[in-house]
Amino acid sequence: MRYRENLDTVLNSISFSVGCNEKVGIVGRTGAGKSSLTYALLRLIEPAGGSIFIDGVDISTIGLQDLRSKISIIPQDPALFVGTIRENLDPLSEFTDDEVWTAIRKGHIEDLVDRPAQAHDVNDDSSGPWVEGTGLDKWVEDGGKNFSVGQRQLVSLCRALLWKRRS
């Protein structure tokens, strides 16, 4: 894979298999190709040679929307949106509360979601409601700044589990 025709390839001779229902984490040092591999899987950049197969299907034969709707990527520093935990996990309201709670339990964030409300300074109207709420109504500030990076990653993991995509 190369970013432009006149540049050297950034990924060479990569081959790996992932079994059915396996989850994969891609780790490595800076510049090792983690992002490039992700871009290739999502077809943000097409391979200069070779092919990528998922379930025996060459991904170059799959429509982009169909391909990308089946893959979940949990970035190192995920973004969350202003609103509730429920809105962040299920922005299109496609799932029942029970399904959302199942994903929360699978992601082990029940304590985070059920943590008692924290009052905000009434003079600070920049961060949503004055009370965070609990459960599915727990408030998420812009970018998820009221959560640690690790907590935002877990919320993103729960979103991926809820959507039943391949992560």
Automatic annotation (TrEMBL):
Keyword ATP-binding: yes
Any Gene Ontology CC annotation: fungal-type vacuole membrane
All residue ranges annotated as the ABC transporter domain in the record: 11-164
Coiled coil: none
Record flagged with keyword Zinc: no
Pfam families per the UniProt record, alphabetical: ABC_tran
Subcellular location per the Swiss-Prot or TrEMBL entry: Endomembrane system
Name of this chain's protein: ABC transporter-like protein
Organism whose genome encodes this protein: Linderina pennispora
